[in-house]
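Request: How about a record?
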Amino acid sequence: MLNRRRLLALGAAAGGAGAAAALLPKGTAPAGAVAAPAPVATPQAAGGGAAAGHVGHSVPSGFAKAAGPAVKPATTPFTVPMPLAPELRPVRSTAAFDRYELSVKQADVEILPGQKTPMWTYGGGFLGPVIRARSGRATQVAFRNELPLATNVHLHGSHVDAANDGYPMELIEPGQTRTYTYPNTQQGALLWYHAHSHGTDPEHVYRGQHGFYIVEDPAEAALNLPCGAFDVPIMLRDALFDASNNLVFGGNPADRNVALVNGKPQPYFQVAARKYRFRIVNTATERVFRLSLAGAKIVQIGTDGGLLPAPVEKAELKFSSGERVDVVVDFSQVPFGTGIVLTDATFGPMLRFDVVRRAADTSRVPARLRRLEVLPPATVTREVAIGTDFSQGGPIPVGTINGRPFDHDRIDMTVKRGSTELWNISNADGAYGFTHNFHIHLVQFQVVSRNGGPPAPEDAGLKDTILLPPGDVVQAKVHFTDYLGKYVYHCHFLEHAAIGMMGQMEIVD
């Protein structure tokens, strides 16, 4: 039986392992005793506190295979190649936009060698295809929902009008198609698209609704960074399997015991002795990765919102669910036949780079990458406290921002278009040891301070998602420019957002 003491223990254990504490429904079993996947419980669905507007669902009979007790699959490290995501081609291009079409459907995908796992995918593969957009040129993406479940799509990190943001209550019903228009008025950056239907998005993302979206711009292209085949998107996440290779959903996300790199456990990737650019996104629903690379330097050149002002050499990359890191690794001094292993602090070896050939290399990493915009002075200061409420008496706690769970009928803050604000974003669960993070829709922000001191190294550049260890307070400057309407901000540990850790702002004139 889950109780407050058990939650505190989970918080401490998960925080020490580099993953978020799971906020579990009453009676949820740990790994090894999970009977079947289940929809995410919310306070409303469970009869506890009010998380108004929850979108619940039941998995249709025969749609997703039932999961038995969780197991640790037996795999041999570095025996399968890391796959690359396919690139989606436009079905139509005009003078104003490129149009893409993509189905949301179930498919049996090979994750474990020689085995098939049912997934809920974009286009039929584990990796949603790469959509490459050009800054200043719009894209239209028509998503057809071929699942027997309602869903929707949010382009994470996009600067877009409210009607195309993937609002959590605006769903694509089974059999319907929804076209989202993205203006791509922002600078070059790695974004990603994923399900965002409130209360069900943890399961939808966990079962495969995630894909790459890259905005490219001329200023970035002029820097002569590694490109083409040497510019490689990488998706990291975790998973839990039963003995029949089905994904186990539910329980404590910290128990997910298989790390996946582009959908494979511990793959290898053959490289030439030259520079590579790796754009890495964390699509796990609740996970912090801490990566190191023995034998070669990691030079970080970008983050959520695009390029940093200058490259930074890193010994470790630390980033949470929804965050992106953009790095360059130079293999030119690595002897042929050498394997260099990318390692995570929790999972251990994740990916081996095998240096197998020479290749010409005219790319470079310049000392200056992109000037960080100086934002106007802030005229408003706000407190944004992410926390957990145990007082409701229901079978699960209530997730809150500033003491209140999400209610789509309530506006939590009204923001003036054109204004600049300071947001003090805090993790109010320090006493419980729970880790959270924070994601805002519509805008990128600049971190001013962390815990009253300078920003952490991972806070640099333009951010839309940021890690909040227990008790941390991040001060961020946020500038609102052109769009009006309703947008959300939330913990991007999706199980936390599903039980209410989400607020709503309205941009007005």
